Amino acid sequence: MKIYNSLTKKKEELKPINEKEVKIYGCGPTVYWFAHIGNLRTYIFEDILKRVLNYNGYSVNHVMNITDVGHLTSDSDSGEDKLEKGAKKERKSVWEIAEFYTEFFKKDLELLNIIKPTKWIKATDTINDQIELIKKLEEKGFTYTISDGVYFDTSKLEKYGRLWGESERKEMKGRIEEVKEKRNQSDFALWKFSPKNEKRQMEWESPWGVGFPGWHTECVVMSIKELGIPFDIHCGGIDHIFIHHTNEIAQAEAVYDKPLANYWMHGEFLNLKDSKMSKSSGTIITLSTLKQKGFTPLAYRYLCLNTHYRSKLSFSDESMDFAENSLNKLYEKAFETFNSSKTEYSERYNEYIKKFKEYIDDDLNIPGALAMTWDMLKDKDLSDFEKHELLINFDEVFGLRLSLIKSDENISGSKYIIKTFKDDLPFWTSDINSLPEELKKLVEEREESRNNKDWDKSDEIREKIEKLGWQIEDSGNKTIIKLNN
Ligand code: AMP
Ligand code: ZN
In tens digits, what is the pLDDT along the chain, a chain of 485 residues? Predict the structure, then answer.
């Protein structure tokens, strides 16, 4: 399979270090607030990567960190620690804040059907390892100390800025220097001293003074600790190319003289129609915001699948409407084909499997694979059985929980087809007793008036049913009852 490597700026054939296993590190959340749907887009992209690797027969060793200290409000090493600031705002301890938002984040991932990392690791659990790395950098002459901390001297590393393109070089030149004592604009903090006039909640002793580690040191230490050096793929959002990942690479190369990871993959941003979404600006949309608007988490996942991970995605309620409707149609298709009689697998079936693999192996072309899925569902040369099998097969990558769409066995011969929802997923049953009592009575009354050809009364009852949030329609001798989304 091919993936785009931000390091070489090319699509490359993936050649993992171990034949059967791929080692991935993805920068985790900074847990001072809820994850917004932009952050979550990046984790959906990483999940798709893992699923495509699994589909190709690799096992995946995926490490994700929790940034619970050291990520400052400005990426120029000035400004407050986001966690300390968040704790002050909410009048809680930093540890409570970190714990609360970490747990919330994990629940968001579950709602989006994102496969759990093989291992979670917290920055605050690796402080000693970080101090050891800084000591090694010091021994090799890459550090210097100024009034607010210990810094990495980027001029000492010949290959500094390997991820950069022309725009990053320009951006660094145009940067307003906020830490005046730094030797070079691109130098970055390895260890920051606690402020003299203020007591931090999180701080540790070190050979250089009491303080806390820099964010870039945390990730390089945690990834190497769990995966060794080099590992296969390092992921994150595109904003990390310029500073965070550049500085992780710098430390790894300075100490080990080896690349940190062989492939670097970055997900493009999700933006609101007219503005950027960022936790620090305070304008964020979360999964809960979507829920309030009546959208399901998996519809958001569908929205993300429908745009390539290296393209910008502009968020709007209209695009969510489209995603929610498309996902529902997919569920309906999974339902309609569920109980179909078994057939042989045709040549056509195999062609679809082959095409699907070509799409996903081409740098995760999921929008292509999705479009092909819709064509497949319309293909008259496939049996319903094959369609269902293909849907379930493709869903190993899509992760839309299509295999959970089931109906009870009696449904094909039954009078009623009832569609409700269980845990945000549609659920079909033939059992009229599963309806709320009031609704069940109305359905039976309507049936009676239809039998008596009393159409006015039947219409009247339909309106009552609709007021309760349900739709009712007749198809042949069947009655279809659906709970509105
Ligand atoms: P943070 O919690 O701020 O450390 O960010 C967590 C992840 O979300 C990182 O990989 C960021 O690169 C990514 N990220 C931040 N904002 C966005 C956005 N608007 N769209 C996509 N990814 C984002
Ligand atoms: Zn990181």
Answer: 999 999 999 999 999 999 999 999 999 999 999 999 999 999 999 999 999 999 999 999 999 999 998 888 887 788 889 989 988 899 999 999 999 999 999 999 999 999 999 999 999 999 999 999 999 999 999 999 999 999 999 999 999 998 998 888 888 877 766 778 999 999 999 999 999 888 899 999 999 999 999 999 999 999 999 999 999 999 999 999 999 999 999 999 999 999 999 999 999 999 987 777 777 676 789 999 999 999 999 999 999 999 999 999 999 999 999 999 999 999 999 998 988 889 999 999 999 999 999 999 999 999 999 999 999 999 999 999 999 999 999 999 999 999 998 777 777 778 899 998 887 888 888 889 989 999 999 999 999 999 999 999 999 999 999 999 999 999 888 899 998 86
Looking at residue 204, the DSSP 8-state letter turns out to be: B
CB-count burial class (<10 Å; 0-12, 13-18, 19+) for 172: middle
The C-alpha angle 466, 453, 473, rounded to 5 degrees, equals 30
* Ligand 1 neighbourhood includes 64 CB (under 6 angstroms): no
Q: Is the CB of 38 under 6 A from ligand 1?
A: yes
Residue of 414, 458, 412 lying closest to 432 (CA atoms): 414
Does 86 sit in the ligand 1 pocket, CB within 6 Å?
no
Q: Which of 2, 7, 54, 35 is nearest to 278 (CA)?
A: 35
Q: State if residue 265 touches ligand 1 by the CB under 6 angstroms criterion.
A: no
Ligand 1 centre distance from Cα of residue 146 (Å): 30
Catalogue all structural domains in the chain, each as residue range(s) with its CATH number: 2-267 (3.40.50.620), 297-404 (1.20.120.1910), 411-483 (no CATH)
Q: Which residues place a Cβ less than 5 A from the ion ligand 2?
A: 27, 219
Q: Is 446 close to ligand 1, i.e. is its CB under 6 Å away? A: no
**What is the number of the ligand 1 atom nearest to the C-alpha of 271?**
19
Q: Which atom of ligand 1 is nearest to the CA of 35?
A: 2
Return the closest-CA partner of residue 40 out of 112, 118, 98: 112
Ligand 1 pocket test: pick from 39, 44, 64 the residue with the most ligand atoms within 8 Å of its Cβ: 39
235 lines ligand 1 (CB under 6 A): no
Cα–ligand 1 centroid distance for 269 (angstroms): 8
Residue nearest to atom 23 of ligand 1 (CA): 39
Residue 118 in contact with residue 62, Cβ under 8 Å?
yes
pTM metric for this prediction = 0.93
439: left (phi over 0), alpha (psi -120 to 50) or beta: alpha
